[in-house]
Amino acid sequence: MASGFRYVVIMLAAMPASACSSLPAAIEAEVVRSTLYDDIPCGTLTAQRATLVRQYGDPEKQPDKRQPGDPITPTGLSVVTPDFRSAAEKERGLAWGKILAMNSSIKRRCSE
Q1: 3-class SS of residue 27
Q2: CA-to-CA distance for 44 and 32, rounded, in angstroms?
Q3: Burial 88-102 (b: 16+ CB within 10 A, else e)
Q4: How far apart, in whole angstroms, are the C-alpha atoms of residue 110 and residue 38?
């Protein structure tokens, strides 16, 4: 019982901090619209995508890892859960969101 109470106390203490950087807001920021890349020439966009893939890996080749926009916590709890992911995890999530958006733009415009 004591460990359950300890968890409740930790969650209550974390609630005020979650308003500053909550997990849902951070996960939503990882989802990038592909239309943002539609004005970039195909060659330039492909080069930008290749640079990101070299640095962060290809999200389409690593399906076992969490993809941008995928929830981390059970429904209902994420609103009060602060984003405790490391800076590297946050950066990779944003980069993967950009890569997936670039892939969509490239498939839509440059695959002719």
Answers
A1: helix
A2: 18
A3: eebebbbbbbbbbbb
A4: 10
| Stretches in the chain below the pLDDT threshold 50 | 18-19
In Å, how far are 11, 23, 74, 79, 109 from 95, measured between CA atoms? 30, 17, 24, 23, 21
CA 81-83-85 angle, to 5 degrees, is 130
CA-closest candidate to residue 84, choices 28, 3, 26: 26
Rounded Cα gap, residues 100 and 80, in angstroms: 28
pLDDT value for 19: 47
Angstrom distance (rounded) from CA 105 to CA 100: 9
3-state SS class at 36: helix
Q: Where are the domains of the chain?
A: 2-109
